[in-house]
Specification:
Layout: E1 3-9, E2 29-36, H1 43-62, E3 66-68, E4 71-81, H2 86-99, E5 104-105, H3 112-122, E6 125-131, H4 141-148, E7 154-156, H5 162-174, E8 180-183, H6 189-196, H7 198-201, E9 204-206, H8 219-232, H9 238-257, H10 262-271, E10 274-276, E11 279-284, H11 286-289, E12 294-296, E13 299-305, E14 308-315
Parallel strand pairs: 1-6, 1-7, 2-4, 2-5, 7-8, 8-9
Antiparallel strand pairs: 3-4, 9-13, 10-11, 11-12, 13-14
Length: about 325
């Protein structure tokens, strides 16, 4: 008998972000465009992305810059707040491309639902509801009451940002939900407990909290997290790490291609293996998205236990096993 278990609630958003990095007169400059929600309920995403990318850009510049054939370029990050809206994202991207003349925009994001639903079904789960809400919602009770009527055994709130996700778990707990709790983009157990409370947060399983200082952390992750903690007073998480890696991946591809030509760099990216904080990385995703443009590398799954983030497992994509 099929398990009547999975509810998906949330929406897809593209995560990209920003501010600016210093360069000096007379240096050759490689501008990288970024835009992200730097205000509103997903502001923590933008802040984490900004910090991660700026850390790697700073390291590259301090080490001399990006080698492009015989030339050396310093990275300058140019970014805008996209206000956590589609129109804001369009405006930011247009400014980066047409006004700032950037060739590369570092972006982090994908259509999670396109992968999650078929994966759940392949594992024998029955998807009993798929619901969406408007950005900025604070009262989720009407929507959650509708979901609870389907008697789900498991709920995944997918790409809900921290501010809204915390409220969803809090209100689900108040409605009596005690099943399996998944949060694909959950990234901060401490913030979740602060919003939802310890009881409502217990056993929430997350994939973006990361483990940059613990048992599953690589030596590279620990080194970067130490530097990040010294700079910002807190450990790295997957979002800061992903932004750090995105800048690092681009540096590696440009260096290997010996060119800033976007076509050459793209073609190089599709064929090469990358170094990342988590270990080896490759590009994939063609089966799901029709194009081989998703960076794949190991992730650590965590769960909230007794109000704290606890590493559960380190998973590697099939493409790099």
């Amino acid at each position: 008998m099929k398990r009547r278990v999975t509810v998906f609630l949330g929406f897809f958003m593209t995560m990209v972000f920003a501010l600016s990095s210093p360069v000096f007169a007379g240096e050759k400059v490689l501008p990288l465009g970024l835009h992200a929600p730097m205000s509103g309920p997903a502001a923590s995403w933008g802040l984490n992305l900004m910090r991660g990318a700026e850390l790697r850009a700073e390291e590259i510049n301090n080490a001399g810059g990006v080698k492009v054939g015989a030339d050396i370029y310093k990275i300058k990050i140019i970014g805008y707040d996209n206000n956590y809206t589609a129109s804001g994202g369009t405006t930011a991207a247009n400014k980066l491309v047409y006004e700032d003349k950037v060739k590369y925009i570092v972006s982090i994001g994908k259509d999670e639902m396109k992968q999650t639903k078929p994966t759940a079904k392949s594992l024998g789960y029955e998807v009993v509801a798929e619901e969406y809400y408007n950005r900025g919602t604070t009262d989720f009770f009407p929507l959650l009451t509708k979901i609870m009527a389907e008697k789900p055994d498991m709920i995944d709130i997918d790409a809900a940002p921290m501010g809204e996700g915390g409220l969803i778990w809090k209100q689900l707990y108040e409605l009596g939900f005690r099943g399996v709790k998944l949060w694909l983009t959950g990234s901060n157990a401490a913030a979740l407990v602060k919003i939802a409370g310890k009881e409502a947060s217990e056993e929430v399983v997350m994939s973006l909290e990361g483990d940059y200082d613990g048992v599953y952390a690589t030596a590279t992750q620990k080194k970067a997290s130490k530097k990040f903690r010294e700079k910002h007073g807190e450990p790295m998480n997957f979002i800061t790490g992903a932004a750090y890696d995105a800048v690092w991946f681009l540096e590696q591809a440009i260096t290997k291609a010996k060119s800033l030509d976007t076509t050459k760099v793209r073609n190089t990216m599709e064929k090469m293996k990358f170094k990342s904080l988590a270990g080896e990385a490759v590009m994939g995703g063609e089966k799901t998205y029709g194009i081989k443009h998703q960076f794949l590398y190991p992730v650590v799954i965590t769960a909230v236990k007794d109000g704290k983030s606890t590493p559960v497992a380190r998973l590697k994509p099939l493409e790099i096993q």
